[in-house]
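To whoever is on call:

I kicked off a structure prediction for a single chain this morning and the downstream step that reads the tokens threw a length-mismatch warning. I double-checked the sequence; it's 158 residues and nothing unusual in it as far as I can see. Pasting both halves so you can look.
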Amino acid sequence: MNEPTLAEEGNLRLAGLALPGWPTDPVREAAIVTRALAGESVSPYGATLLWFAMPPGDEAPARWECACGTAITGLTRAGMSLPDGRRLLIEDYRDLRALTLAHAGPVRAIPETWKRLEATAQHRSARLRPYWRVALRNKRLADGNLLPVTEISVFLDR
């Protein structure tokens, strides 16, 4: 069984779209964000990110409020809107320390992974920040193929 890893992630700027519940296609939503940023003074990078403001609790994923997008460097115009009228969110997070664990089950089982991370944080006498993240990555295997990997991260206060 995987063990949670602790990493100093520093600062993060997230560009995303506010969505009601778990998106049907988060990779497509992140691609919409990336296309909207074309021509701006920013560089998107990394995994597709889903950012949640509250712990998953007992609510179904369809009831979770999230922002879906990507990490960026640089600055963009404030209050950018997409052609469909949705507003692009730009949020900054500072001094991130992430406890991360790979999640291999269905979306509805994410609360179990989150609770395991919460228990690890409590064991370390660390206090959780209220927000948490799901990163959808493609890990390149030795044979060159890509393996989709889902990582759940909670963030710790200092």
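Update from on-call: the warning came from a stale cache, not from the record. Cleared it. Sanity check on the structure: Residues 5-156 form a domain with the Multidrug-efflux Transporter 1 Regulator Bmrr; Chain A fold (CATH 3.20.80.10).
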